[in-house]
Prior knowledge:
The complex is a heterodimer of chains A (295) and B (341). Chain A is mainly α and 295 residues long. Chain A has helices spanning 2-13, 21-51, 56-61, 73-80, 84-115, 121-133, 136-149, 156-181, 184-192, 196-208, 210-225, 229-234, 243-253, 260-289. Chain A has 14 helices and no strands. In chain A, helix 5 (84-115) runs parallel beside helix 8 (156-181) and helix 11 packs antiparallel against helix 14 (260-289). At the A-B interface, helix 1, helix 2, helix 3, helix 5 and helix 6 of A face helix 1, helix 2, helix 4, helix 5 and helix 6 of B.
Amino acid sequence: MSAVTLDKPVAARSEGVRRTPGDALVAGTSHTMLIIWSVIVIVPFCWVVLSSFKTSKEILSSPFSLPAEWSFENYTSAWTKAGIGTYFFNTVIVVGTALVLVMLLGAMCAYVLARFEFLGRRVIYYTMLAGLTFPVFLVIVPLFFVLQGIGLLNTLPGLILTYVAYALPFTVFFLYAFFKTLPDDVYEAAMMDGAGEWRTFFQIMLPMAAPGMAGVAIFNFLGLWNQFLLPVALNTDRDNYVLTQGMASFSSQAGYNVDFGALFAGVVLTVLPVLVVYLIFQRRIAGTVSTGTFR
Amino acid sequence: MSEPSTTMAWTAGGPSEENPWGVAPGRRRRKLTLDRALFMTVFLGLPVAVFVIFVVVPIGQALFYSLTDWTGFSPVMNFVGLDNYAKLLDDETFLKALRNNVLLTIVVPLVTLVAALAIAVVVTTAGPSTGQVRGLNGSGFYRVVSFFPYAVPAVVIGLLWAQVYDPAAGLLNGMLTGIGLDGFKDYAWLGEVRAAMPASMFVIIWASIGFYTVLFVAAIKGVPAEIYEAARIDGAGRFRTAISITLPSIRDNVQTAYIYLGILTLDAYVFMAALAPGGGPANSTLTMSQHLMNTAFKKSQFGYATSMGVVLALVTLLFAALVFAVFHFAGGRDTKGDVRR
């Protein structure tokens, strides 16, 4: 019996050697399929990067040809002439502010819902949960007039507040579960030491929830950076465009003489920041994703 | 809809609370001091105010507007009862869009989930049949790559693929003619009635598989390894293990994924608007959401447009209910629920 238990780690270590023909077959087929899939995912991106260095004429003549000269001209023209630069800064401002606000408000709301017992707690929680499943399309028209009514239509603050409102249910939903798991003793100890509710939250509970906050923040960042519908309907002033909306209008407005080179460069510029965030945080994303289930 | 998830990762650390609605344990109900009352008012009041103003109120208004003939630009609106809804039944374009959405909702989640499940199973449990149960070598690479598209804005994915599908200068036709399939020279993937919908579906599937792969990988990792080892000792092969062990163990995740994807395809606005802003040849890729946006912001029929929004919401709820029902009956004998508690 003890021999078996002792054997086990050894077997695990030498498993690379002890492969059956069946293993090799399965591994071979799986690798082939997965490599094909990876190629299908990666090739369009590589093609876009390649095309972003070509002139429109080169792009139209052949999809594969290498650019005659590698220049960043498309990037400068996308950044300045097509306004991608402005859209980029708008997006950074809107997404940055909305992210901070939604994390703060979401944490506050989730904290009270998770750790205090009071009348109407369930109602608020369930209403938030329902907000998670309703299609934004249902509210897009009234929302237009709500913003108009408070004078924030076509302004960045208006867009920021809307972003916050629509990212809030998701944020509360996830952080609720997180605050639930924090131990009560710490809270009691802080109270005993006379910290008061406010200090307890900001100096003790919030830092303890940092891992959960980070995961949710990454998802909110991706979601808000990629948001398209809300700005298209509520932010129609060209100077206030965000990136996604700017890209869409860039490709459609130019009509027949689309500057394809600049379009591809714009795609690269839009994708790059998100990709960097993703590659840095991809491990954490994999961890957080598992929490996104209605169970 | 359901209870909040106490997650695998999080429950592992602390005590899990399976019943968050029930009376909270112990000292939760504390004396209400002035400090505490102020704290709760501010902490709850601010977020709830934002939520009510921008989400709850508009939903209420939507329900009302859908019963009027409001044009949006004059304060005048007449109450028309259910006329808008009756009109929808005769609106050929809307019905076509509805059918397109239903088609999307049947095909896209199915293909995406089967592919994502297959990838997840392979990278987690299809490794060598000796030693520990584990995935293929190099599975981390596939996971990272396949999640890639999720990090890209949907509208950019649409634009990117519109270029790939471009009849003359696109990557796809370039490759197809390159390997000798000259029939595809100048073939308009998004311009042919027959090809436009499948081509659009492929884009959504392409964009979604990665996210659900990561979701399923995380779920499968939460299944105790002993179960897999036991199955292996009993002589179950990889396929049998995937069907009899993995799938039932992550049933809840599959159900959630199905609902998420259904919500995505019943909307599908961003992808479709970027691929074919006009709704495709003969409206073959027009979605309800596109039709709604046109009706509201181009034709100024706001009352009528909101009734489409209400129908969209109802269809979404119906879909979610259907998925719950199917999963409930398909797995009714499953005892996992008891095990978990």
